[in-house]
Amino acid sequence: MKRGGELRVGISGWRYPGWRGKFYPKDLPHRRELEYASRILNSVEINGSFYSLQLPSSYQRWHSETPDDFVFAVKGARFIRHMKKLRDVKTPLANFFASGVLALRKKLGPILWQLPPNLSWNKERLEEFFALLPRDTRSAARLAKKHDDNLKARAWMKVDASFPLRYALEVRHKSFMTQEFFELLRKHNIAFVFADTARKFPYAEDLTSDFIYIRLHGATKLYVSGYSGESLKWWADRIEHWRKGKQPRDAKTVGTSRCDVRGHRSAASLPLDVFVYFDNDAKVYAPFDAQRLAAQLGVK
């Protein structure tokens, strides 16, 4: 995918029974839901990868069902973050990449790591985890070869070409709201997720990478509330600033509002790709809010 000022607006997952007859036509076959959604929005988050390792055949199918310029964000495995809590995860990380993620090829966008609310700031643990993350697809394929026997019969380690991998981190414990944490993200060029959680979890707008990752979980109630026209305009205005590599005047930052990426040039002077995903899916708000925001931003 191209880099520098691109906008991706989509949804977190696409298979929700309650969306039938509201977002999806009633007579649309279930197997065509991704195809349908990908003709309306230009990106989606793959949520199934969070709950279990998917099959290479699934990733291949998702690749074939979507337009050439479509991009997937992939949610990292729950086992790594919630069960292992980022400790001793080299083999689980190899399994994750061997499960078929690389079969998305050029449609592979950012990989999201969402930490649980009970996981607090630990610099050494994060440093070790970040050091394990492969920085391009060829490195990911090499790591994938270290998978365990659980994936022996179905591992996918093919790459057509090498291109950089991007990572985003979403945190849910207030102890992360320190300048030291944001400096660590900048050091490893990992995006801090701007997560709107109806004030349930910490929120900040510190720029830490060469792209922006936003998750909108609900304006007033987590997962079950929609976004008003005024609220979407507020987000659109901020996104236009970030897309240009600038901060809004009222940006809520913990540390410095500028960050050094791409050879120590200031990110505040660079155009940034922006990825936005709506996760307020419980009452079918997500796909319609995504369409409205995309329209405000001129995303087709």
Describe the structure.
- This protein has 300 residues and is an alpha/beta fold.
- 30% of the residues lie in helices and 16% in strands.
- The chain contains 10 helices and 11 strands.
- Strands 6-5-4-3-2-1-11-8-7 form a 9-stranded parallel beta sheet.
- β9 and β10 (265-266) form a beta hairpin.
- α5 packs across α7, α6 runs parallel beside α8 and α9 (229-243) crosses α10 (285-297).
Contiguous uncertain segments of 5+ residues: 258-268
Mean pLDDT: 93
Largest sheet: 9 strands, parallel
| Dominant shape | globular
Query: What's the count of strands?
Result: 11
Q: What is the CATH top level name?
A: Alpha Beta
In N-to-C order, the SSE pattern is EHEHHEHHEHHEHEEEHEEEH
Q: Helical proportion?
A: 25-40%
Count of the separate structural domains: 1
CATH homology group: Protein of unknown function UPF0759
Task: Give the CATH architecture.
Answer: Alpha-Beta Barrel
Spatial order of strands in the largest sheet: 6-5-4-3-2-1-11-8-7
How large is the share of residues in beta strands?
15-25%
Q: What is the terminal-to-terminal distance? A: 16 Å
User: Which class of secondary structure composition applies to the elements?
Assistant: alpha/beta
| Radius of gyration (Å) | 18 Å
